Amino acid sequence: MSKVVTIVDYGLGNLGSVANMLRKLGVASVRASTPEDVAKATALILPGVGHFDRGMANLRERGFEPVLNKLVMEQQVPVLGICLGVQLLTRRSEEGRAPGLGWIAADVKRFVFPEGKSLAVPHMGWNEVEAVDPVLFKGHQPGETRYYFVHSYHLVCDDVSDVAAWATYGYRFTAAIHRANIWGAQFHPEKSHKHGMAMLRNWLEAVGHAP
Question: How confident is the prediction for the chain on average, in pLDDT?
Fold first, then answer.
């Protein structure tokens, strides 16, 4: 029997969609809405939709930050950030003033396009990615695998080796990250049908939580 995945409920995000996708994969999940619940986690998903500062304020006001730091940075519990969730793993965002969790050496930047290139922001819809991480994107087929994005900001990593996948919207940007026990996707795997399901299955296998 697979282990249970803990979805951090800090008041933002598509928790139901994430739980439903895990259920389809045969994996049990629990929503953790208190630090005590989070402390029991053996694998974490940090989802999120919304404003960076609101996300960090919710984590801090609800007492999640100390226990998350202990689990991820000291105990090396695996974590997957999704959309806003992956942005919160960085140092800071141009969207606000609050410091992020700082687990990844990266900043979050707003899409700014070169002169003469006019594209809508937020970036919304299906995009191919250039897979880098062979674990997270095992079975990825270039030109055939697409994921669903909804975002106005994206990560800029200090170290390119932290980039697990790239995507292009006006220019090349970080679509996913991986460093040690820390993983993240700017897109929504829970809304990306079979391709998102395959990516989540790969992550579950990598962190010892596959069914």
Answer: 96
If one counts every other C-beta atom within 10 angstroms of the C-beta of residue 84, the result is 25
Catalytic residue numbers, as ranges:
83, 188, 190
Which CATH architecture group holds 5-206? 3-Layer(aba) Sandwich (3.40)
Domain assignments of the chain as residue spans, ordered by start: 5-206
Spatial contact of 51 and 96, defined as CB atoms under 8 Å apart: yes
Q: Could you give the 3-state DSSP secondary structure of residue 61?
A: helix
pTM: 0.96
| Cβ neighbours for 118, distance < 8 A, ≥ 6 positions apart | none
Question: Tens of pLDDT along 191-205?
Answer: 999 999 999 999 999
CA distance 55 to 87: 10
